[in-house]
TrEMBL record:
Role, per record: Histone-like DNA-binding protein which is capable of wrapping DNA to stabilize it, and thus to prevent its denaturation under extreme environmental conditions.
Organism for this UniProt entry: Marinobacter pelagius
Domain of life: Bacteria
Entry's Gene Ontology cellular component terms: cytosol
Protein name, entry field: DNA-binding protein HU-alpha
Keywords: DNA condensation, DNA-binding
Family designation: Belongs to the bacterial histone-like protein family.
Entry's Gene Ontology molecular function annotations: DNA binding; structural constituent of chromatin
Transmembrane segments: none
Matches recorded under CDD domains: HU
């Protein structure tokens, strides 16, 4: 499901317009991004938690040449599904 399809589904369920539902989704994603940039977790009880994860520096291989390369440390956003979401999937 893509963003327009999600907005349409939310609009159908809540009675708001698709445009307004799209704005709500955009506001949600903006706030999750801002919280991640500040290093904060975003927890939605029953759904899951978005959190900042750190990756250590490591060595790897260039797949084209086979040469060793250093991969620098980085940060990424992870998601851990909550119990209700896990139960819904199974």
């Amino acid at each position: 499901m893509r963003k327009p399809e999600l907005a349409a589904a939310i609009a159908d369920r809540t009675g708001m317009t698709r445009e307004k539902a799209g704005e709500v989704i955009a506001a949600f994603t903006d706030q999750v991004s801002a919280a991640a940039a500040r290093g904060e977790d975003v927890s939605l009880i029953g759904f899951g938690t978005f959190n900042l994860r750190s990756r250590e520096a490591r060595s790897g291989r260039n797949p084209q040449t086979g040469a060793s390369i250093q991969i620098p440390a980085s940060k990424t956003v992870g998601f851990k599904a909550g119990k209700a979401l896990k139960d819904a999937v199974q």
